[in-house]
Amino acid sequence: MNVLTLPARRPIFALGLLATALAASFNAQAQTSNVRGGVTSLEEIRVLPSAEEAVKQAPGVSTITADDIEKRPPANDLSELIRTMPGVNLTGNSPSGSYGNSRQIDLRGMGPENTLILIDGKPVSSRDSIRMGRNGERNTRGDSNWVPVNAIERIEVLRGPAAARYGSGAAGGVVNIITKAPTDTFSGSVTAYGLIPEDSDYGSTRRTGFNLSGPIADKLSFRVYGNIAKTDSDKPALNAKSSGINVSETNVPPAGREGVRNKDINGLVRLDINRDHRLELEGSFSRQGNIFAGERLFTNGNATIASLADDGAETNIMYRRAGSLSHYGDYGQGRRSRLTFAYEGTTNSRLNEGLAGGGEGSISNPGAGSVSELRSLNLSGEYNTPLQIANKHVLMTVGFEHRDQRLDDDYATRSGQTINKNADSKSKARTTAAYVEGNIELTEALTVTPGVRFDHHSKFGDNWSPSLNASYFLTDHLTLKGGIARAFKAPNLYQSNPNYLYQTRGNGCPYDPVTGQRVSGPCYIFGNDDLSPERSINKEIGLAYDKAGWAAGLTYFQNDYSNKIVADMGDQTIPDAVNIGGSLVRPFQWVNSGKAVIRGLEGNLTIPILGENGETLSLSNNLTYMITNKSKETNQPLTVIPRYTLNSTLDWRVNDKLSMLATATLYGKQKPRSQNLSNNSTVTGDGLRERGSYAIFGLSGAYQVTKSTHIRLGVNNLFDKRLYREDSGSGQGANTYNEPGRQYYATLTASF
Q: What radius of gyration, in Å, describes the C-alpha atoms of the chain?
């Protein structure tokens, strides 16, 4: 193919070639030049951490270890544990309150859609197969539950500037779930977990998982893990009293927490070609099926919803298939490479959820279903090499990534829901990127990590993401750290597809600001292929202290956010009615909104109480305080998030066999929106109700029964603090999710 036909891609290749040429040039010069030539020989270069490793020491980074997971085992979804990190909450992607009990990981108030989930560094995108409603919400559990807890080595949570190098979707941050590697000797474990609520109105959990690894032959090893889990849904009547809606044959109260059935299997084969090179081939299959609890967007229900909730039916099932082939190379003295090709396929099968007016998200026909298929391909690689430039030690990283997503959702473009009855149900997007980073030791005390990433999107053009992180040792134990980065998020495949349509027959239409009257329907919202990517400038600065078991830190962060993609009809100029399919309708679109700002503080304090460095007894705390999280133009919140979140853990190692853990989480006040931008109406009455501050406590103990067997018993929500959902939408302000009552759990692990 003539390269002149692809002018938009030239900058990508140019940047990649330039970075590679620079690395090769510096590397060759380092090997052949002497000190008089201005570049020290490679043998004299001191190897620094890579830029990626250096950034993981930034203030906005937390690590959850396998030991942490063992001490605080989540019932099913990893989000239960990740939420205990600083800067992390569980929210919806808007302040609407819709799907209130399906909250996902929200980093620094940027919303779940700006949280990028990775498994072993590979992007996970199954939630992108789920249609996005007009308020920016998806009826999804998110992508934090594809790896069972017994298979995890650690979880890295990167927030703010630390996440910029990962490209689209990481504007809030990144959660990287790292699985256990194959072992040199044959070993394995089996873990059984059970959780029983004190009140039978809440769902219980049972899960069993195994992990097995070891050598197959000389230079060949394997790892395999599997998991079967079931979390029951809450009873349909759970929120009857709080909402004032009684269970009947034709209706149910706002739904409690939905249940889920999980089945996971994963296998990895590793070939150590020699001491410096290895290949890894991995494949996995997962099934997640919901247990319906009556979830829908609005208060009103119907007989079908009541029946499905009473039966605990599976109304949506997701199958995820993933595979990858990776090469890792170590060329000595800090020179390393990685090349990975990854595939992810998702089949999302569900009963059709309504699109129009008060029926949005509701199921009215249990016999009508649809399937969406999402296929994602990812090719990525990077090379690290140490250099010495102008007598400064440098570890340079050059890398590239190519993502290809293809979605086929017939229901989203089916006749009667689209402007074009012959519309293609398929949509696709490609992103090609190159990045260059360097970890530079300017002085013994000051290290800086500059970087730049260039992305070319097949629909939305070019995007530059520069970043700069720095660390300065004020003393041996006190460090000043900071960073700034530009991040972006491309429109998703539903928002950008002009054939995708949301419709409302009238009740969802906006109020005309001139007449004060609701616009006559129907009103349509189309996808928009002329959108701009969402953008943010993320900044942070903080102090960190670490000495003899004491650890303390305080970080200020600010995200200046613009171009957020919304379908707020009340925020658009009301279009004239046009004739579509024989009806007069008003055609709205997904659009870019104005600017927003997010400011907050993150802090941590660890106090050693007994033993060397607190190894016997220690108290750990972290705090997130949201100063502001709102649109500058409308003064409305981006998400409903607590004013503060304080997590405290008292860890006591009684002896070699017995340990105890006490936990406490305090949540501050949560305020709802005061204006509904989707239809340009003012929220009044109960819609302005706040959720007050509250606290949840827990207690657990672990005992090493034998060398290979240990057990943990625990109580969640020790003092039985219960919160109820009072509306399915925003009719009760911020009271749109449940906090379950007291629960008892036990987990037993046997290993060899």
A: 26
